[in-house]
Design a protein that fits this description.
This protein is mainly beta and 124 residues long. Helix content is 0%, strand content 48%. The chain contains no helices and eleven strands. The strands form two sheets. Strands 2, 4, 5, 6, 9, 10 and 11 form a seven-stranded mixed sheet that branches. Strands 1-3-8-7 form a four-stranded antiparallel sheet, with no helix packed on it. β5 and β6 form a beta hairpin. The protein is globular, with a radius of gyration of 13 Å.
């Protein structure tokens, strides 16, 4: 069992930055592939970024590539999402998730554990 808790969301102006954190419980944290998803009102939850269990492979949605960076610190049981050059269309609730798959996957169905979400609002 894994418990995930996101933090770091808030209100920011377009062009600004935020750093999201996801703290996890569990002695086997390092064995999980981790992902960030987001969901805007009226839209499906979509993949944003993912990082493999080893940290050696990362994947990003085209819409955030070059602006967002995912990283993990297994010693701290934490995964991060650094978000730069934020745009109003980035506004959404952001969720972290953990998967037992050995590599990053893009579908929500591949993830076994989810955090409660943190709101990110980007004003123009």
């Amino acid at each position: 069992q894994v418990r995930l808790v996101e933090s770091g969301g808030g209100l920011v102006q377009a062009g600004g930055s935020l750093r999201l954190s996801c703290a996890a419980s569990g002695r086997t944290f390092s064995s999980y592939t981790l992902g960030w998803f987001r969901q805007a009102p009226g839209k499906e939850r979509e993949f944003v970024a993912g990082i493999s269990w080893s940290g050696g492979s990362t994947r990003y949605a085209d819409s955030v590539k070059g602006r967002f960076t995912i990283s993990r610190d297994n010693a701290k049981n934490t995964v991060y999402l650094q978000m730069n050059s934020l745009k109003p269309e980035d506004t959404a609730v952001y969720y972290c998730a953990a998967s037992t798959w050995p590599a990053v996957r893009y579908s929500t169905s591949a993830y076994d554990y989810w955090g409660q979400g943190t709101q990110v609002t980007v004003s123009s």
